[in-house]
């Protein structure tokens, strides 16, 4: 049975799509947060307060890592950049774990091992 007809390939593919989608959503929300803080957006505005509330759980674990850089109402939030990087690395790691569960043929495994040795 090749990879195209394998019953385990489609759920694996769907799983990787879900992880990338969730990562994309979190990254976009964090990017909005970063830009709004950088441009000194009014925190009382509906959209701004919504973005800050939704992204707080994702940004808070990194809040004490770096100092916040402030200048004339603008905030360069290094912690948001760090959060975006960490979540990307975590998603990449999850994808690698999912792909390791893919069924491979013996010739394909041998070829990949030979490539790793080079």
Commentary on this structure:
By secondary structure, the chain is mainly α. Helix content is 67%, strand content 5%. It contains four helices and two strands. It has a two-stranded antiparallel sheet. It is elongated, with a radius of gyration of 20 Å.
Runs in which pLDDT lies below 50 for 5 or more consecutive residues are 1-5
Helical segment tally? 4
Q: Which structural category do the helix and sheet elements fall into? A: mainly alpha
Q: Please summarize the sheet with the most strands.
A: 2 strands, antiparallel
Global outline: elongated
Q: How many DSSP-defined strands?
A: 2
Average predicted local confidence, pLDDT = 88
Number of domains: 1
**Helix and strand element order:** HHEEHH
- Spatial gap, N to C terminus: 28 Å
Strand content: 5-15%
Helical proportion? 55-70%
Radius of gyration: 20 Å
> Within the largest sheet, what's the order of strands?
1-2
